[in-house]
Design a protein that fits this description.
heterotrimer, A alpha+beta, B alpha/beta, C alpha+beta, A: alpha+beta, five-stranded antiparallel beta sheet, C: alpha+beta, 12 strands, elongated, STAS_dom (chain B), Anti-sigma_ant (chain B)
């Protein structure tokens, strides 16, 4: 059975709302403190990217249960400019993360599964999943 | 070390006043400025080196590339204000035979 | 978080709280080494600490918990930065390995052997500033007692310069058996290089040949640093320059060709600007310094002279090379 809830991202406050939603869902899913923090940070990064580069978008959170495995999926979507050079954006040390470890590579490290779909001029959808160990 | 390039334009004559040292780090700045006018046909570019006390091979590379581009559209390049060291560099490399050079003192090499 | 390491941490923490002993701190750092090896992130360590503190001071648990949660949140980015850093180090190591392979290929490709010509003592030193050299030395030994050398400096350093050099090498290879007049050689190389180079690349080259029958050294230059001739009987240096444009800029170039006669004890030094443009804290190393060094070594074998010059100039530049350093010395015995 899947459970989906979402937050529209438009102002910087919406990022906080998305974080709150994420943390609650993570707690309810049974994730420990550290993983809750990781999931929340991932949501924060994704929501922030939407806010900074696309202007508006959506963060959806889905609780998963498949084959006895429990987890949580974040879907960050927008109709912004899209990512022209996906390879560079996923590289360590690229300017938006700039040695701070954040950005897309950071989100990838915080979660277990990570997928990006983006088209220039159309928008971007990022799907990231974390499983309960 | 920083490099500054001030550009002045008078019809078809572009004067580039270069200030600082031209080396591997600062050469890209000069390159960027020169490229903006490199393809303007039959124009003259004047490079003022009076505030440049050092240029290494990277700087020469930028100059050579610029020279080739300008020549390709029938333009010309003139160098002014070079000190002794820089003049020697242009002499050794034979570049003084293909571009007009005027020293700080106003002496010219007579190439046209 | 592996159980045993976690238990070790708790036990050590408890001990330290009770006795504040240096031994426990030392042991704690051995544990943190293990944490890093096992890639345990900073936030996990703090979580572990929180749990341990709550076990040791159960009455504080409720009050102190939130402060640790706060710290965990703050430390997540530190953990990400650390992972990025480690990943970049691994990438760099991989690139070094690739570079080492490239250097080996370059060395093989550009191998050249010093000619053995009666009456001529040749010394060579060539050190790259980075892993790949932009300086190039190519010797030709002709059967009739001619020793020829090309000393070239490809603009820039590193990988692009080295690729440029392959072109020169193949050009020189094709000239081996034919005419070796400096004027001709430079013209041929200029044609090859002009066609195939990037606009901003250029090459300076000095080409000289020594004829043992006439004891004449004939030379030409394409925008290169002039060579230095030391006349033993006059105890003075003469600049050997010949007019010629850098290679690769123009298709048709006239290269001046000159000749000097060498007597016993005379030597000619060919170099690249990595030698003359040496810099130390005070500024440029003056040419006088180099000439004096040569003078003091004038009676030594060619290889000793060049080795000494390199060692001294390297020291003067604070054990660093700003540019590729190349010296070739032809000494008339």
């Amino acid at each position: 059975m899947n459970n989906r809830s979402s937050v529209e991202i438009f102002t910087e406050w919406d990022i906080v709302a998305a974080r709150q939603l994420g943390r609650n869902e993570a707690k309810n899913s049974g994730f420990g403190t550290v993983d809750q923090a990781r999931i929340t940070t991932a949501i924060s990064e994704l929501a922030r990217n939407i806010y900074l580069y696309a202007g508006k978008g959506k963060i959806e959170i889905e609780r998963l249960e498949t084959d006895g495995m429990k987890g949580m999926t974040i879907i960050a979507s927008d109709e912004g400019p899209g990512i022209p050079d996906l390879r560079r954006v996923m590289e360590d040390g690229f300017s938006t993360s700039g040695g701070l470890g954040a950005g897309m590579p950071g989100v990838k490290r915080l979660m277990d599964d990570f997928k990006v779909e983006s088209e220039v001029g159309k928008g971007t959808t990022i799907t990231a999943t974390k499983w309960l160990r | 070390m920083n490099l500054q390039v001030d550009v002045e334009q008078n019809d078809c004559v572009h004067v580039f006043k270069i200030i600082g040292e031209i080396d591997a780090f600062t050469a890209p700045t000069l390159k960027e400025q020169l490229e903006k006018v490199a393809d303007q046909p039959e124009c003259q570019a004047v490079l003022d080196f009076s505030q440049v006390n050092y240029m290494d091979s990277t700087g020469l590379g930028v100059f050579v590339a610029f020279y080739k581009k300008v020549k390709a559209v029938d333009g010309s390049v003139k160098i002014v204000g070079v000190n002794k060291r820089l003049k020697r560099l242009f002499e050794i490399t034979g570049l003084d035979d293909i571009v007009e050079i005027e020293m700080e003192s106003g002496d010219s090499n007579g190439t046209v | 978080m592996p159980q045993e390491v976690g238990k070790q941490y708790s036990a050590l923490l408890q001990k330290y709280i009770q006795h504040e002993d240096e031994t426990d701190l030392y042991a704690a750092q051995q544990v943190s080494r293990k944490f890093i090896e096992k890639k345990i992130s900073p936030e996990e360590v703090i979580s572990l600490h929180k749990t341990s503190v709550e076990e040791i001071f159960p009455e504080l648990a409720v009050k102190i918990g939130p402060s640790y949660d706060f710290l965990i949140e703050v430390m997540i980015h530190y953990g990400l930065a650390l992972m990025e850093h480690q990943s970049l180090i691994r990438k760099q190591e991989a690139m070094q390995i690739e570079m080492d392979v490239a250097v080996k290929v370059q060395d093989m490709l550009l191998e050249t052997s010093i000619p053995k010509v009666e009456g001529l003592d040749i010394g060579l030193v060539s050190k790259p500033a980075k892993k790949m050299s932009g300086d190039y030395v190519y010797f030709i030994e002709q059967k009739d007692g001619e020793a020829c050398v090309a000393v070239a400096d490809v603009m820039g350093k590193g990988l692009p310069a080295a690729l440029c050099m392959s072109m020169i090498k193949f050009g020189m290879d094709s000239l081996r058996s034919s005419a070796t007049e400096p004027q001709h050689v430079l013209q041929v190389i200029n044609q090859i290089v002009e066609k195939s180079m990037d606009d901003s690349m250029f090459i300076s080259m000095f080409y000289g040949k020594f004829d043992k029958k006439t004891c004449e050294f004939t030379y030409g230059s394409a925008g290169h640093e002039p060579a230095l001739l030391y006349r033993a009987d006059e105890d003075r240096f003469i600049e050997l320059d010949a007019k010629g444009l850098l290679l690769g800029i123009r298709k048709d170039v006239d290269f001046q060709q000159k000749s000097v006669e060498m007597s016993s004890g005379d030597f000619i030094v060919m170099l690249t600007d990595g030698v003359t443009e040496g810099r130390n804290a005070e500024g440029f190393i003056e040419e006088e310094v180099i000439l004096d060094m040569l003078r003091t070594m004038k009676d030594r074998p060619a290889q000793q002279i060049v080795d000494h010059l390199y060692t001294e100039l390297f020291k003067m530049q604070n054990y660093m090379l700003h540019d590729d350093f190349t010296l070739v010395l032809f000494k008339k015995e």
